[in-house]
């Protein structure tokens, strides 16, 4: 049995059969032919297109294991240099220039008010990951720009919202660089500064550094608990030390070398209000944490279906945990609509936490009542679209198609109905079957399909404007390259660099 790939992001789906699937024997080609005919009939294409689909299906299936497209280096660079990296590069370059000018004493303002540059960057980094701010941005874009602007503009809106993490990472890194600069200046003038200010400055640097390093993708994606403990708890230590660093720094008089206990003076400094704003943004999501009742269905050893009360908008994601402050894991929300009685989470067994949901199902879990938005939340911007997912990636994709009749679902997995159970299958058959869904069971059909062929046929016959993809790293890479080569606008899973 192949090992499942471990992922912690609900936008990163897994395919139950991640190893290369076997080449189909000649006797199995009838199954692929039936699939091609079914897709053609669903799409309402003419007889000539149906014949072309059959001809394509009769080709050597071994060619499906190799991409049929060749991308130029420029096209590959465009796929690599995402909006995330553009934001990161812009923020780092802008701050880097300012830092260089300050270090050379050409621009003196940052030398006198370094705290503003440190905390200004850090508060912006926190703001980009704040659920309230994120939902507000999505709301503004969805209300103001749904369907009527040019397609390139709507694609740009989706790209910006999906890659806000680039600003988060860039501002956090830049804030750390300014913090180092601040501590260096204090050490240069150490005779005029109190030892307490120096010590808290060093502690703050160490805490911020650990918090940043723990958020690197290779740590976050492979050691989730290590990431969470260090990024969150050391980050809180960094926040406390920042408060102490700011208050001590603003209370110590460099001219008289004495402490000024006047609290009014501290409150009047911009540093104080920056730290206050950071604290509020960090605390807001935690005020929405609640312990809620959950019913768990275990249709197979691979998957747990969690059912919660009340419906949800499409494109939202939920964080859940067995404790109030530890081990929060994010999953895509499946719901028939805001007024539905229930919403569901599809939790594939990929680690200790999800395995415990199957082996020891809880009756209650902790969750943040304020849900955060994923890229699918921008689906309302488009007149028509295709949602492609593999395996448990269905959790991040299904609501979009359930709540929007203009979206078509392509779901590739292994023995889906048995693996995911009657609840999820029932939602699909009640709302999508047969006109708006293509289910590919790789176990029943003897192998994986030519996914790009399915996407191209569905994209053109459905009259889609965009394709959203949720798959594992390799599948996402291949499909994004295929869509780029075919000239199909697509958004895939985001792996932060």
From TrEMBL:
Question: Which species is listed as the source?
Answer: Trametes coccinea (strain BRFM310) (Pycnoporus coccineus)
**Which residues are listed as membrane-spanning?**
87-107, 165-185, 197-218, 233-252, 272-289
Which residue windows are coiled coil? none
Give the classification, highest ranks. Answer: Eukaryota, Fungi, Dikarya, Basidiomycota, Agaricomycotina
What's in the keyword line of the UniProt record? Membrane, Transmembrane, Transmembrane helix
Its recorded name reads: Non-ribosomal peptide synthetase
